[in-house]
Design goal:
alpha/beta; Rossmann fold; 236 residues
Length: 236
């Protein structure tokens, strides 16, 4: 039986992953929402851990019960947009960076030593990391940094396989707040299957839906001034 720990397990992709892996082994489902954690705790093989990923001591205390892991999935995240870049919202920027980036460092410090040799580390980034997008100064910057962190860890870690996940739009409570079209959006069930398939094959870059993410990867190859013109068009 595999031992899997998932942050951000009380909603969206994280909850889908927790319920999937509970069919195969023991899952430590981490999050802040006590009510949802209680619900998850009723499922076989799920051990709920209430913690705040932005608070190192909260992570350390809650995870004392975790002795060893086969798969560590750092999925917790938040999304807020900067509506007026000319009047930059530093407080918003700080909130997003703390949840999406600094928390990764806090979790890695506590949990990476618990991952068994031959185990896996999975960091959930975003396809927003591929290209600069309107209003995404905070979210995009945090996810681009998360991608770099994962890729850098893949270089230095010799006994743990590292995967980075780049989802396109996924229909979750978080993206339900978006006030713009989400092309080729997929369900949580589809996202869960894409991620778990990629993890089982130990893929370094897990990106989906391919018809969307491959377009972004191709656009990445354009000269920056061309993409700048295109992105300004998206904004309008």
């Amino acid at each position: 039986m595999k031992r899997v720990l998932i942050t951000g397990a009380t909603s969206g992709i994280g909850r889908g992953l927790a319920e999937h892996y509970a069919k195969q082994g023991l899952v430590y489902a981490c999050g802040r929402n006590e009510q949802v954690l209680d619900e998850l705790g009723q499922c076989d093989n799920i051990n709920p851990l209430q913690l705040d990923v932005t608070q190192p001591e909260s992570i350390r205390s809650a995870c004392e019960v975790v002795e060893s892991l086969d798969i560590l999935i750092l999925n917790a995240g938040n999304c807020e947009y900067i509506d007026d870049a000319r009047h930059f919202d530093g407080a918003l920027f700080k909130r997003v960076i703390e949840v999406n980036l600094l928390s990764l460092g806090y979790c890695l410090e506590v949990l990476l030593p618990k991952v068994n040799a031959g185990g896996q580390l999975v960091i959930v980034s975003s396809s927003a990391a591929f290209l600069p997008l309107p209003r995404a100064q905070a979210y995009g910057a945090s996810k681009a940094a998360a991608t770099y962190l994962a890729q850098s860890l893949a270089v230095d870690l010799t006994d743990v396989d590292v995967s980075v996940v780049h989802p396109g739009f996924v229909k979750t409570p978080l993206t339900a707040k978006n006030d713009f079209p989400m092309p080729m959006a997929v369900s949580v069930e589809q996202a869960t299957k894409a991620i778990t398939d990629g993890i089982s094959k130990r893929r370094k870059d897990i990106h989906f839906p391919k018809r969307f993410t491959l377009i972004l990867k191709l656009l990445q190859l354009l000269p920056s001034n061309v993409w700048l013109c295109l992105s300004k068009g998206i904004k309008r």
